[in-house]
Amino acid sequence: MLKEANRGESLPSGSFASWLKEVQASLGAGGAVDVPCGNCTACCRSSQFVHIERKETETFSRIPKELLFPAPGQPEGNMLMGYDEHGCCPMLVDDKCSIYSHRPRTCRTYDCRVFSAAGIEEAKNEKPLIAHQAQRWVFDYPSRDDHARHAAVKAAASFLRKHPECFAGGSASNATHLAVMAIKVHSVFLRLHEEYEKTGYTPDDPEIVRAIARANRNV
Fold first, then answer.
1. What residues have CB less than 8 Å from 192, skipping those under 6 apart?
2. What radius of gyration, in Å, describes the C-alpha atoms of the chain?
3. Cβ atoms within 10 Å, residue 125
4. How far is it, in rounded angstroms, from Cα 188 to Cα 32?
């Protein structure tokens, strides 16, 4: 658990643009994100189902089979790991991940800073422990690009919230889904702002929805 003395302290997260580039690379290639979690285990104690891909054989070898069940809507061999009666991951032992070196890709790529980046408040109700931690992250803005990209991510999240048709299933499945999608398609809103500054042109909502669909396919 978070130490009481640390709960209100801000957490430096570096340049927003640099962080965004790292997250986008992770989403595209499936690599790990370097999140300075410290002693925080909020994401491990928030009643989350952890998706484990079929190819993650090392991870499967560390998890008892009785803790796994088939992942709905996923190819055969993809599994989910649930949580205990306290909402904790069963691999969390003495408040530490007992399989950290072999943890699932889902855990390696999870980054609660996406909520702060997208300005999403929904997580407060869905995952209060994670939301509390996310509020502590503080980004730096050493360049104009940092400011512009953060504004674009927030604009994307705001638009997506009002237009659920942008999502394949007709809506965002949860706050994480919304935040990640905003990051994936923020370039659309970055271009829209640049075009508006040059020409004053503002596209209608259907045009933006189509642009989001194109951007999402290209991620």
1. 202, 203, 208, 211
2. 18
3. 9
4. 25
